[in-house]
Amino acid sequence: MEAEPESGPGPEFNSKEEAFAFYQAHAKSVGFSAIIKASRRSRISGNFIDAKFACTRYGAPPSHKPKRAPSRAKTDCKASMHVKRTPHGTWIISSFIKHHNHQISPIHSSPNPNNNVNNKASPSRKLKVKKIPQYLTFAQGDLQFLLNAFMSMQNENPNFFFAVDLNEEQRLRSVFWVDAKARLDYRHFSDVVLLDTTHVKNECRLPFVPFVGVNHHLQFLLLGLAFVSDGSESTYAWLMRNWLRAMGGLAPKVMLTDRDEVLKRAVAQVVPESCHCFCLWHVLGKVPEKLGRRIHGHGGEFMSGLSECVLRSRTKEQFEKRWGEMVERFDMGDESWLCEIYEDRKQWVPAFMNGRVLAGMSTVQRSEAMNCLFDKYVQRKTTMKEFLEQYRVVSRGKCEEEAKADFETLRRQPALKSPSPFGKQMVELYTNAVFKKFQGEVLGAVACHPRKESEDGAMKMFKVQDFEDNQDFVVTWNESTSEASCSCYSFEFNGYLCRHVMIVLQISGVHSIPPRYILKRWTKDAKKRDLSVADVVVSDSRAERYNNLCQRAFELGDEGSLSYETYIASVKALEEALRKCENLDGSIQRVREPNLPCFGSQEVSPEPEIIAMGVDSSWLQMENPNAQAAGLPCSYKSQQSIQKMDRLNSRAQNVDGYFSTQRIDFGMCHQLNSVAAIRNDYYCNQHGIQDRGQLNSIASIHDPCYMAPQRMQPMGQADGGSSSQPHGMEVKVKQLNSRHQSQ
Q1: Strands 172-178, 192-195: parallel, antiparallel or unpaired by DSSP?
Q2: How far apart are CA 153 and CA 178, in angstroms?
Q3: d(CA 31, CA 79)
Q4: Fewer CB within 10 A of the terminal residue: the chain, N end or C end?
Q5: Secondary structure class of 19 (helix, strand, coil)
Q6: Rounded CA separation 216/525 (Å)
Q7: Are 229 and 743 within 8 A, CB to CB?
Q8: Which burial class, exposed, middle or buried, applies to 593 when counting CB atoms under 10 A from its CB (0-12, 13-18, 19+)?
Q9: CA 170, 613, 270 angle in degrees (round to 5)?
Q10: Helices (H), 103-214
């Protein structure tokens, strides 16, 4: 009997691959194998427009004796699924045949709660549910390569930082790292940071999470990277806590993420002081996926109405009114997803921006550019070795790219293409890359026609007709406060004024950009610090003064290494400063501080800081971590008894500290040396530590002391060193490798 195709409402898919994955899951749950039988492309666009997935026994059997195994022989089975691409880009099931003309193998099937393609599995069938492992899986040798790469990067610059997180079985759950340049760049460009979780949601082989910023040349900054085992709230919270610690506890003004409830909770937990925004184009891009069927009959009317409501509403009240009218017009009041994004409107709708500046990080063009950038790092089959090798190549390339942009900005100015006073003003201030964008707005002002709509004292409202975009925009200008706003939200999105505001300023007799609209982050002086008394007078604590000097030294190294001339100037300045300090040391009596370790001191620093990282002894074992140039042979005595606890020194060590974890660490921990750490940190948990050492976050500049109220047991001793990388720094990870390869 010929199988009849089944039809009716079914799921929608974002791509042909997603549809095939769905059919494969169905095949696995029933007990057969699936293949892509056929697919067809459009002659006009070249894109796939339909596809047919079928049982491997689909097709007529051959007339001669088959060579293939009987289980794969053709039986003219008709079981299949036909999918087609809709005009909106989604894929729908056009026909589905579930009946097979041969025996299937239910013993090999597995339940799939997401499979709703008429899967009527027997309730008596006992099937084992496989738990998804909550740890990273690496190939043979990947872990050793990862740690060796971290050691190498730390040797190149001692301000390199990394942290790892282990699960209860001592398997690697997450690893995070950030290089020295990124830590320095963040001090200048901490206003907007994007946490990109795309590669976690896409289930890549390497679930890669970058922290992304943008510098004064409109170039992307990698402000930290991580491999994570899952997209849970605890994982993202751990990641953000360690990233925040690496950045000296300085939270960004704006944290950008995709719209996600898990990320929403994690950001609120770790950086509540940051303004958490969702990428506008990520929210709008989800509309066809979430509302495809409901808006299909309305053509492009719904999307036009949504764009008008979201992008053209000048005030919160106007947005609320337009949103209500849109929902009522298209009868969308029962759409749960639409209700959800409305509840989150303060985090993505421009009318609720309240002066927040996103520095171009939420535009469509920047989103596409970021995707192209990260495609260089991670593809579905990229190995960890390939990733790290490519990461180092691209990192060096981006440093050279920034140095080249710095040189070009200092060497020549872009040519002025108009006599506008705004262009003459900003060509002196903006970097070349930013000025070219700004000059496009200056030139576009000639295509704008402003008309005053109303005036209330110093407040004026204009309607600006933009003939280039063929749209009208509303601009408000307050002469007394020099405040302006435009319904195009260019300043909020990009960080510089739009053509509509400039034409209003021009007819209002204002011939220079108000200072409030000149962001330092886009200027040639973006990385120059305004030295103040507050910057100089840090604290009465010598440890904090030391910490501050080290941070400034890294900045000097970054700037002083740009050219031979800056290098010579930096060396001379350092030598002069050292001579002055030596002269002052001879005339000022040194005072021993109670919270600073020195020869024979037995005090405890009163300043607590907590960090959680535990490592099993089978995971990391250091051989001969001995070298030269140990720092001050100091130790602290806690309020409890610390018996026979010695140091595992690192190169250029200055201050020792002890740490308590925020979560319980399992197993015995040993130390992975920070080859150039300024302080050596012992980690302990609330259950007491026996023979537990340290997994150092590399080059922590200052980590005050914190002790758990339990007693600490003896720990071994070794000296740290200053050699580039001693032969004994090989890390044994065989047992961890075997664990990660077990599944």
Answers
A1: unpaired
A2: 10
A3: 12
A4: N
A5: helix
A6: 9
A7: no
A8: middle
A9: 120
A10: 142-156, 180-188, 198-201
Exposed, middle or buried, 179 (CB in 10 Å: 0-12/13-18/19+)? Answer: buried
CA distances (Å), 24 to each of 21, 538, 738, in order?
A: 5, 62, 30
Q: Which residue has the higher pLDDT, 524 or 695?
A: 524
| Residue with token string 């994690």 | 266
DSSP 715: B
CB contact at 8 A, 329 and 187: no
240-280 tens-digit pLDDT: 999 999 998 999 999 999 898 899 999 999 999 999 999 88
C-alpha R_g of the chain:
31
Q: How many residues does the chain have?
A: 743
Determine the 3-state secondary structure of 324 from DSSP.
helix
How many whole angstroms separate alpha carbon 387 and alpha carbon 406? Answer: 28
Rounded CA separation 356/495 (Å): 9
Phi, psi dihedrals of residue 605, rounded to the nearest 5° = -65, 135
Q: Average pLDDT of 59-65?
A: 66
First to last CA, the chain: 44
- The C-alpha atoms of residue 199 and residue 210 are separated, in whole angstroms, by 9
Judged against a pLDDT cut of 70, whether residue 616 lies above it is answered with: no
Cα distances (angstroms) measured from residue 244 to each of 214, 237, 547, 665: 18, 10, 17, 21
- CA pair distance 352, 357, nearest whole angstrom: 12
Backbone phi, psi, residue 527, to 5°: -100, 10
Instruction: Tell me phi and psi for residue 741, to 5 degrees.
Output: -95, -5
DSSP 601-647: ----------------TTT---S----S----------SS-B-SB--
* DSSP for 99-127, written as a single string: --SS---GGG----TT--SS----TT---
Q: What is the largest CA-CA distance in the chain?
A: 105
Q: Which residue has the higher pLDDT, 225 or 155?
A: 225
Q: What are the two backbone dihedrals, phi and then psi, of residue 516, each rounded to the nearest 5 degrees?
A: -65, -20
Q: Are 54 and 80 in contact (CB under 8 A)?
A: yes
Asked if residue 276 lies in contact with residue 257, where contact means CB atoms within 8 angstroms, the answer is yes
Query: How many degrees, rounded to 5, is the angle at CA 109 between CA 105 and CA 115?
Result: 125
Threshold 0.70, pTM exceeds: no
> How does 231-247 read in b/e, with b if 16+ C-beta sit within 10 Å?
beebbbbbbbbbbbbbb
The highest-confidence range among 147-161, 376-390, 534-548, by mean pLDDT, is: 147-161
- Nearest-angstrom CA–CA distance, 167 and 174: 9
- Distance in angstroms (rounded) separating the CA atoms of residues 97 and 450: 62
Answer whether 164's CB lies under 8 Å from 695's CB: yes
More confident residue, 98 or 427: 427
| The token pair that represents 703 in the structure block | 């980590």
- The token pair at 698 is 């590399």
Q: Which helix (H) or strand (E) holds 706?
A: none
Q: 51, 40 in Cβ contact below 8 A?
A: yes
Better-predicted residue by pLDDT, 448 or 659? 448
Amino acid identity for residue 620 in this structure: L
Structure tokens at 138: 């690496």
Residue 52: strand pairing partners: 38, 82
Cβ pair 296, 88 in contact under 8 A:
yes
Q: Which amino acid makes up residue 181?
A: K
